[in-house]
Structures are given as C-alpha cells and as structure tokens.
Amino acid sequence: ANKLGSRKEKTLAMIKPDATDKMGTIIQLIYDAGLTVTKAKMTALSRKEAMDFYAEHQSKSFFNNLVQVVTSGPVVAMEILGDEAVTAWRRLLGPTDSSVARNEAPDSVRANFGTDGTKNAGHGSDSLASAARELEFFFPSTGHGPSNTAKYSDCT
Ligand code: RTP
Ligand code: MG
Q: Which residues are involved in binding ATP (predicted)?
C-alpha cells in the first residue's frame, strides 16, 4: 500500500491494430474508469515479436489468425495504473469474443470496436504475473531513454 493506503496495480493494455483509430475514445474510457495511463507506446510488432508475446497460445487453433491480426498494423501499448487494474481493464474490454461482448457487455471496448473472436480491439494482461512479463516486453527496464521511475514512485 502507498502512503494514501490504496493498493494499486499495473497492467499492460494493448489496443490492437483494428482499433487504433479509436485510441482516443479508448484512452478516455480508461481515465473515466478512474485508471491512469503511466506509459504509452505506438509500435508495430514483427511476426516473431507477436509470436513471442502470445507464446502461451502457440498450440491453439486461432494462433496463426491472432498473429496475423496483431501484425496487421501498429498497436498501442500502455501501462495502466490503478486499483485492481488487471481486472478493471479486462472488465472495460469485455468478453474475448466481440459478438458475445455485444450481448453481455454492450458498453465494452470489444462490443463497440471489435469484429469477432480474434479481431477484438484490445488485449489485457490476465494476472499480475502476466502483467509483469508483458510490461517488460513493451517497456524493457534495460531500454534506453528516461527510466520513468521518478514521476510515479509515490503512487505505486
Ligand atoms: P487477451 O489475452 O487479448 O486480453 O484476450 P483474452 O484473455 O480475453 O483471451 P485469450 O484466451 O487470452 O486469447 C488471446 C487472444 O487470442 C484471440 N482468440 N481468438 N476462438 C478464437 O477465435 C480466439 N480465442 C482467442 C483473441 O484475439 C484473444 O484476445
Ligand atoms: Mg489472455
């Protein structure tokens, strides 16, 4: 807990290529939910990078389609900070399948901006352990440039 007594988490949010044209709306949804964007990067993933990022799904039937979707254009990766950020961001995303999302969570990101079960607008880490791995993937602590540790150290 920080000095205010709240327990904040960090998670990795990724806006997939099919929804980058809605990045403004999606980022607004994040802030409206009381979460904060503490890092952001727009970047294109190579096929190898996409396969590494989704390594846990390599044996799934949808893997090739998933890699295709996520390399079809740039993505926006963000570190999201807030109370129960892992769960909160996945709640904003809605169910994995965009059609299911339209039925069960009509206000969600996937309901509004996703197309189907794989082309579904966004990604969210599924646990704190996944978040740590995925944040390091997009924002390596060994990278060059400002380390981004000073500004938020009081909040985390
Ligand atoms: P994500 O990892 O992207 O936040 O989504 P998730 O936890 O809700 O879903 P997961 O099971 O981890 O699957 C990762 C991504 O693979 C694609 N997918 N396609 N049956 C299908 O066609 C299918 N199932 C999953 C989606 O792009 C999903 O977000
Ligand atoms: Mg997942």
A: 16, 62, 90, 96, 110, 120
